[in-house]
Amino acid sequence: MAQHVAQPTTAAPAVPAVPEKLPLKDIAPWAVFFGILMLVLLYFVGAEQGATSVVSGEGVHEWVHDARHLLGFPCH
To answer: I need a labelling partner for 67 at 20 to 30 A (CA). Which of 10, 30, 45, 59 fits?
Structure first.
């Protein structure tokens, strides 16, 4: 019967993980895109009715009705 002999192990020193820095020029186009997208969504939720309406009818109003109330925009 063979016996298991424990081998001595040496632990490697812990090296802290350093996150890689992203240049601003790589992030800027995405930040602008999502900023514009958020402004368009905010317009449709908050202002798409009445005198400033871009889309005629009540379709957009009904689609964003609950979001409008959740964000505190009056609509009634």
So the answer is: 30
